[in-house]
Amino acid sequence: MQAIALIATATLIGLSAPALAADSFNIDSRHTFPVFEVNHLGFSTQRGRFNKVTGRITLDTAAQKGSVEVTIDTASIDMGLEDWDKHMKNEDFFNVEKYPTMTFKSDKFVFRKGKPAEVHGELTLLGVTRPVKLAVNYFNCGVHPINKKEVCGADLTTRIKRSDFGMTKFLPGIGDEIRIHIPVEAFKE
Hints:
mainly beta, 8-stranded antiparallel barrel, about 10% helix, single chain, 2 helices, Lipocalin
């Protein structure tokens, strides 16, 4: 559900470790799918993902700075069942008619040992903007073995409360805490 935060985090992956000046990267939408997890009625952990993510990342490793702007198409939610997708798109959850996108924006990166370790930014979901911190659990840049372009990838994680964004339907049965995992890849412009 709060996968948008995940996408924003994914954008940070596009940062290039070997860069000497700011480099720009475009998120690879074929390899960036924010995944979210939520407790379902105390019985199980349910997962969903968003299939359409776009964004741009800039990274200056020498100055240890970066920025990211990510947009997630909320109607691209994928729960694995058409009826469930339809329910998640309605007013009870993502209200895709009124809020067709989620966004994550950041210009604050924390570096450790020359690589991005955290991204502090703002997630906008359902018209509500809140601060979100993404942990960068893995980060690597290199030449893609198939298309020979420079690429960076990362695995990002965060936790948010859906109620902070006004998504309160079925609380507490459906959990408030949303765990987000974002695998991200981005190609240098």
